[in-house]
Amino acid sequence: MTQSVRFHSARNRFNSQVMWVVLLILALAPFAFGSTKPSFWALWSTILATSGAYYFARLALADATLRVPAHAFYSVCVLYVVLGLYMIVQIVPFGSLVPDFPMATQGAIDLTIGTISLTPDDTIMALMRWFSYGVLFLLVLQFSANQQRAQFFLKLLYWSVVLHAIIALLFLLQFGDTILGIPKWKYFGDALGGFINRNSFATFLALGSVVGINLLIAGTGFVNRSRNGKPAGRMARDTVMIAIGLLVLLVTLIATNSRMGVTAALCGVLFSLGLAFFKRVEGDNRSRLLPLVALLLVAVAFSVLAYGGTFMERLGRTGDAEIRQQLYAQVIEMIGQRPLTGYGGDSFEYVFPLFHRPPVSVDLVWSKTHSTYLALWSDYGLIFGTMPMLLVATVFFRLLAAHRRSTLQEPLLRCGIGAIVVGAVHSLVDFSLEIEAVTLVFVSILAVACARQYEIGSTAAKEDAP
Question: Which of 165, 168, 301, 418 is the most buried (most CB within 10 A)?
């Protein structure tokens, strides 16, 4: 065995080991109320950090290189690192450099801490989660560079989401409308699975639906080529099972009664279908997508008729929208008081009461902005708070460019593009991507797509080389 083959074999073994650790985290995180508690943030961060240290140490000892170098995503890394550094700046006591707080609220909050963040301990927690997302992205990026492993990973992730959907339906319909056997205190009659918020669970299911529709497109014979040497019967069975799983996801989505969750899912699914349909590739048979579209429409109609009574009732309500508009107006006023620095990562729950007044209900505790965009600007200011948006937008346009440039249908790229559409739409009016279990899945799907984008770019560069 040559030295290069030995290094390649060692890297493959390390990649497979890390993949199973990541899958375990993604499968377990939703069961812990969506991992909304600091203890679980610390747990997943510790496991990911340990896995990362093990992975890179073993690669170094084997003298093996990274399959996907970090500099391939230079702009993404810069945006990620700059925001992380600003979080550190927010918790360093700068004393007199800290911007003045509105006089009307002085005396209602402790200004002697001398940090930009008014809740430095919570900002440390936000930094820990931000670090864990970066490690997760880097690890998934490495083991997904192998296309077969990436497809296997996405299939297992997809079935993990389907399993959560099945469990959610069982606890809703058969086990007393509970959260994994624990009595609910709100969202009665809504499918929640292991989450405590229907909208977050709906976004989780929507991400699974995007993966499912792209796996289904790849298995319908849309592309008239043999794949991986699989017998036609085996491919047909896989396709049928994926379709059944997608039906379960759609039924559960409707049962969450999350209007925006269903809307975001449909946006992601339809965007993926549109990309596949309008992609001109030799050997494609576009007519084979039409039965899939018809099947999708029938599945949605069945889901609404069977489990959509409450969902349809909520579609006609406008009171929630009016409350949200009033809330957003007060959050924007709050951002205007500290437009450059923000109030610190994860500070909204503690700072907003200083600005909270009628007509926004004073009977409720508003712990979230109900818009991730506003949350970022509130926490980090308009400049640094925009960086996560620019980061995701950069990935989005890179994936679109790679999809347009590729001479093949690219389901892995479409998974990433569809996931971004889901997250961007739902983040307008809710906070699902502020829930760690959802964000972990979101980051993993993006990393798989980015690995494929890098491979496409590398192949094109070699072909263009003289």
Answer: 418
Q: What is the residue-wise DSSP string for 271-304? A: HHHHHHHH---TTB-GGGHHHHHHHHHHHHHHHH
pTM to 2 decimals?
0.91
Q: What is the pLDDT of residues 80-125, one digit of tens each?
A: 999 999 999 999 987 556 666 654 444 445 556 778 898 999 999 9
HEC readout, 117-156: CCCHHHHHHHHHHHHHHHHHHHHHHHHCCCHHHHHHHHHH
Which DSSP state fits 71? G
Q: What is the DSSP string of 16-48?
A: HHHHHHHHHHHHHGGGTTTT-SHHHHHHHHHHH
What six digits make up the tokens of 222? 């849309």
Q: Put residue 191 in one of left, alpha, beta given phi > 0 → left and psi -120 to 50 → alpha.
A: beta
Give the ranges where 352-435 is alpha helix by DSSP (H). 372-384, 387-405, 411-426
Biggest alpha carbon–alpha carbon distance for the chain: 74
Contact residues for 412 (Cβ-Cβ < 8 A; gap 6+): 144, 147, 150, 151, 154, 214, 448, 449, 451, 452
| Tokens standing for residue 261 | 């969750």
Is the peptide bond between 30 and the residue preceding it cis, with omega within 30 degrees of 0? Answer: no
Per DSSP, the three-state class of 311 is: helix
Phi-psi region of 117 (alpha: psi -120 to 50; beta: other; left: phi over 0): beta
